[in-house]
Amino acid sequence: MRDNGLSGKVTLIGAGPGDPDLLTLKAYRALQSAEVVLYDHLVSQEIMKFLPHNAELIYVGKESSRHSMPQEEIGKTLVAMAKSGRNVIRLKGGDGYIFGRGGEEAQALALANIAFTVIPGITSAQGAAASVGIPLTHRDYSRALIFATGHLRENKQVDLDWDTLARPNQTLVIYMGIGTLPMICKQLIAHGLAPNTPAALIERATTQAERCVVGSVQSLPDLAIEQAIKPPALIVIGEVVGLRETLMHHQPETIAIA
Ligand code: SAH
Q1: In CA terms, which of 48, 153, 158, 208 is 20 to 30 Å from 54?
Q2: Could you report the per-residue pLDDT of 37-51, keeping only the tens digit for each?
Q3: Ligand 1 atom with least separation from CA of 123
Q4: Going by C-beta distance under 8 Å and a sequence separation of 6 or more, which residues neighbour residue 126?
Q5: Quick one: which atom of ligand 1 is closest to the CA of 235?
Q6: How many structural domains comprise the chain?
Q7: Containing H/E element for 104?
Q8: The CATH number of the domain where 166 resides is what?
Q9: Which of 19, 21, 45, 124, when mutated, tests ligand 1's pocket best, judged by the most ligand atoms within 8 Å of its CB?
């Protein structure tokens, strides 16, 4: 029993987009005292090395098509582990509260009256933007920033508010959208977005395997096939993508293509 009168304690940690140097200091410190760690596939190996050798590691997966542990089960495991009185860490890629289901896990803990802390991570959109030279907002080109999910709903549709997403002078970042890229681009154009609007795909941002492909909202689906872009990757759409050419010249090295 801890001094808060509740059993155990859970820390939900965002591990950032991949580069271990992008972990927050708070997350790094919390990892050192982990006793049980539930982690998913987006957490890089380098970050796993920061955990104590004797920590119990539980892989809970989450590759878009094959969820290795159902969400409800993850919630239950977190609660059970916390009740064992150990220091439990839930480690997720990027930020846990941005398309990370951190909210659902926090709800499960709250319901079970388990104390928890949330440590934010750099979300992949931020990591990618910095790494490939695309500012997500810019006073001249983009006055709003939208993070959306391209994941298919049970009805096999990407249920998004296309009129809102197709507006000019904003940046749209789509997570989990590689499988539905053709549908997304088609809908955006159908709802009024100019087909030549600059757009980019960034695969495995901030890792050694990072790739960036740049085109337009019209050309992106074909480029994705040509370059065999695979998840995890982000779609970034908006005039800010056009700034990359200038900004990348001033970055020391680039492993990006196109
Ligand atoms: N919580 C995470 C997002 C999890 S959803 C975050 O804040 O970043 C999974 C999606 O995130 C992937 O399908 C992909 O779109 C994106 N993603 C995660 N890591 C990425 C990376 N290193 N490079 C590009 N996209 C990434």
Answers
A1: 208
A2: 999 999 999 999 999
A3: 7
A4: 17, 136
A5: 15
A6: 2
A7: helix 102-111
A8: 3.30.950.10
A9: 124
